[in-house]
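Protein modeling request. Please complete all fields; requests missing the sequence field cannot be processed.
Requester role: graduate student
Desired output: 3D structure, token encoding
Chains: 1
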Amino acid sequence: MLRIHVIRNVIFVLLALIALTLAHLQVIRGSYFRRQGKNNALRMIPFEGERGRILDRNGKVLADVTESWVAALIPQDLAKEGDVFLFLAEVLGEGRRTLERRFEAGRLSPFSPVTVSGPLTRDQAIRIEEGAYLHPGLVVMRRFARRYPAGEVTSHLLGYVAKPDAERMRRAAREGLNAEEPVGYAGAEEAFEPFLRGEPGGRQIEVDSRGRQVRLVSMREPGQGQDLTLSVDLQVQRAAFEALGGERGAVAIIDPDTGEVLALVSSPAYDPNAFVLPGSRSKVGGYLSDPRAPLFNRALSASFPPGSLFKIPVAVAALEEKKIKPATTFDCPGTFEIGGRVFRSPHAWGRQDLFQAMGHSANEYFFHSGLRVGPDQMARYARLLGLGERTGDGLWQENRGNIPSRSSRMRWFKGDTVNMSIGQGDVLVTPLQIARMMAAFANGGHLVRTRLLKAVDGKIGTVPIFSKNRDSPYFPTVSSVKISLRDDTWKALKQALYAPVRMPDGTARLLDMSGFDTFGKTGTAQAGAGKSDHAWFAGVTRTSKGRIAYCLLLEHGGSSTNAVAAVKRMLERLMQEGVL
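Delivered output (580 residues):
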């Protein structure tokens, strides 16, 4: 009996505790949990915002938006899924199983619409709207698709938009954005994503415990992204692109006074429309498997040995440190031996001064000059001219390149110094860095900061740096720094850079054309055993209409005369079209 009495008391105590707990939850904290329950029952169904356009400096559209309508299914609203798929299969002319697989692949949550069709024709949209009342969960939704009128010509400049990958989806979720909305990949699309992306909209609904919609709480229309004006001139961009003729290479063209990027080309290119057009998966797959790497941006993300272009900073170092004078001569017999190693040159030029050596690109002259100044001074003046560093703000995935020095290696030999003096070994640069270096010889010794973004929604600024507030880009006023060199150094180098073009046997004599005032330097850089050399030309050209600083690279293009020929085609076209 005692045991039964104890058990009865324990049960009584437990029931009393349960009753007190229920009273506490329902009476004392009831209002709190009702509020929590109401909040937990609110869901947001996102609507896609309209992406801003991208224009060139003259207002020509580089990236546009087309509006379309698509069929979508809201999973939690579907009643008889089989019926709705049969209906859609009939209207769209597609197989039922294809639509079902598309639906399952895109399904993320019960409330998020899943797009199951491509752009609808007018008749298809009307038929789906008319039949929607028989098929709960079926809706016609507005979609925005990117369009790139210039196609391959602006591909690396602009990048493309596509569905976000896992990392971008997580980032969007953290920022409270629609994780399913297409985002920018590479180029201006990615760099300027905060400005281009439209404000998300959507409808907020209340659902019951089974996830079914009870009522519409609120609706917010999506906003439009901001239109961006780039500094690029589409005519200049097209001329540079076509000058490469589809060969692997890159062209960077800037305004030497402002640093504005007028053209940025990488070849081979790709059609950015392939990433947004239905049925282009095989085309995208072809880009990914192409051994020529058409998705790789050679103008910004790649760095190459500059070859004889590096003779410019070597000459600057030797003059500035008073190791040579313009009239200093060295014998250039076609071979140079140091430490038991023989460096061979394509030509034997005999005795050369600085101007002749620059015009002929005589290696031995710069071997002697490089040994006189040493690797650390060569590196110092190369960096002073902007090599080995990023060129500006608002540029994406820009490679720094590499300017070696004694401290960058465990051991350094005189042979390394000789190799460095002609831009080989560990020296790596980008075409844009070289174009900026050339600009300094045109604008009186100012190292400009390159810039691509010219205006946001028509508001013009200088050199934008992006703040987290998308409505308030910050535009620093400093756009260049003065390179501290003696006036006689600038004067001697400017004169020496005319030699390749104006000497009868100069390496760039093809560019001595009527109506053009051009100076610059050719470069042929070894690319490794069994591979053709890289071909370079970098220069400044002035006409009665203006001037440009530029660099053209032909990757594995052989002799630098091939790069000079490509530059000639580009300049002649720009003059014919009245741009230059």
